[in-house]
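ok so for the tutorial part 2 we go from a plain amino acid sequence to predicted structure tokens. step 1 is just haveing the sequence, like this:
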Amino acid sequence: MATLDDINTRILRVLSTDGRISNLDLAERVGLSPSACLRRVQEMERSGVIKSYRAVLDPAKTGIGFVAYVTVGLNSHTKSAQEAFERAISRAVEVRECHNVTGTVEYLLRVETADLAHYKHWHTEVLGILPQVQAITTFVVMGSPKDDRA
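step 2 — the prediction. this is what the tokens look like for a chain of 150 residues:
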């Protein structure tokens, strides 16, 4: 596994904001030779520290006009109920994130749809009919002054 020393941490910070930066520019930004920088990046890729590179999309330009965080409480706390719910959610393209959380509910979802009407349909006709679901609470995102997700 790659060691996360100060230089690797700087490399990761730069890559997390600009995954398309050239190795030459990255090396210059972190104070390494290009060959040493490339070796470090490749080692972090091989060891799984860097899992992938992604494009950050503009929601408005991709047809996403509605974003909500949704908490879901299950009616059964068994492993099979959780697995069945997770399988169903993994097929829902509207769900961009699914987190198993502690507290009064089991799951926190990030849901993105074209608009409120599409969300209502998904809420009622997809999420609401899952047999494991007992409670749904929706938190509509009105703005995101900070969003560092890649």
